[in-house]
Write a structure and sequence with these properties.
The chain contains seven helices and six strands. The protein has 160 residues and is of the alpha+beta class. A two-stranded antiparallel sheet has the order 1-2. A two-stranded antiparallel ribbon has the order 3-4. α5 packs across α6. The chain is elongated.
């Protein structure tokens, strides 16, 4: 059996009757990727039977413009599963991050540890892996605390 050309295989996985973005109705309907999506909702497609998959919105940009977006393909519609070429534009990682923050999709990560935790980690005995599990961090973070790469002034913050 002859393999299906990549372009045809790509467009066979697209539903052109997707939602109209409420915040940008002028864009028209999203074209929704119907095949595999990663945990963040981005469509993925393999360029060949073996090898890595690529993000479907990047592939859509390639099919429209004849080149890969460098380094990011951003969505005007904010629909991660959308592959409509007119909804996708090229941007840098900085532009992608600014777009994410401006649109309220950024989730601030709070530190897991306090200065008191850092002091306790330095005083703890046992394997770093076990200490890391107790505090819910990675072993390399425990190592960085003990070498004073992280939480250098933990004792000073506590006034000890």
């Amino acid at each position: 059996m002859k393999p299906i050309p990549w372009r045809l295989r790509f467009w066979s996985k697209v539903d052109k009757s997707g939602p109209i973005p409420a915040h940008r109705p002028n864009l028209g309907r999203c074209w929704v990727w119907t095949a595999y999506r990663d945990p963040k909702g981005y469509g993925r497609i393999g360029k060949a039977r073996t090898g890595p998959t690529i993000v479907a919105s990047r592939a859509s940009f390639f099919l429209e413009h004849g080149r890969w977006p460098e380094p990011c393909a951003l969505h005007k519609c904010d629909n991660s599963s959308c592959v409509r070429p007119s909804h996708i534009f090229e941007g840098t990682r900085v532009e992608n991050n600014r777009d994410m923050v401006r649109k309220g999709r950024h989730v601030a990560v709070r530190p897991k540890l306090t200065a008191a935790d850092a002091v306790a980690i330095r005083a703890a005995t046992g394997y770093q892996r076990e200490i890391a599990e107790r505090f819910g961090v990675h072993q390399t973070y425990v190592s960085a605390i003990r070498r004073r790469v992280k939480w250098r002034n933990a004792e000073k913050e506590l006034g000890t």
